[in-house]
Amino acid sequence: MGLAMMTSKLNRTLHLFDSFEGLPEPTQDDGEFAKVYSGGKALGKLESVHQCEAGIEVVKNFLHCDLKLPVDRVKYYKGWFQDTVPEHGKNCGDIAVLRLDGDWYESTKICLDELYGRLAKGGVLLLDDYYAWEGCSKAADEFRERLGISDQLRKIDCDSAYWIKS
C-alpha cells in the first residue's frame, strides 16, 4: 500500500514545519563541527547559513506529484521552529509519528519541548540527526533525562535513531 493511500485511509494529516531556507546558525551547544559546517557562524541567529536548503515548491512537488499525497492532507508551516512550532504545534492533534530533522540543539529542543507531549503512547519519535550532530543528541539526551524517559533508543543508521513512546 502506498503512502498516499495509507494517508487517505487513515484520515491523518501530515504537518510539515520547516524554514524552507536551510539551517539557521548553530549555537555553542552544537559543537565545533557545526560551526565549521556553517561557515564559522555559531551565534544562534535565525538566519540561513545556506546549508540543507529545499524550497517549499520542491517539497510540495515531491509530496503531491511524486508521492501523490492529497493536497488537503498536508499542512505547511513556513518559518523557523522557534517561531512556528509553539504557535501551531498545539493544533496538530495527536501525533503517531514525530520525525525531527532540526540538526541543531535549539531546533531539536523546541520541537521536543512543544510536540513530544502530543505523541501518542506507542507512537514513534524519529531523530534524523541523533548521530550526525552533537547538538541534536545533546538536546535529546537532556530531554530524555529531564522527563525520565527510559524507552530504548535504537539506531537506524549512521545518522538516525528512534524510540517508541511507552
Task: Give a structural overview.
With 166 residues, the protein is an alpha/beta fold. The chain is 35% helix and 19% strand. It is built from six helices and six strands, in the order αβααβαβαβαββ. The chain has helices at residues 3-10, 32-37, 56-66, 81-88, 105-115, 134-147, and strands at residues 14-18, 74-78, 95-100, 119-127, 154-155, 161-164. The strands form two sheets. The protein has a four-stranded mixed sheet, covered by helices on one side. Strands 1-2 form a two-stranded parallel ribbon. Helix 4 packs parallel to helix 5 (105-115). The longest helix has 14 residues, at 134-147. The radius of gyration is 16 Å and the shape is globular. The chain starts with a helix and ends with a strand. The model is unreliable at 1-8 (pLDDT under 50).
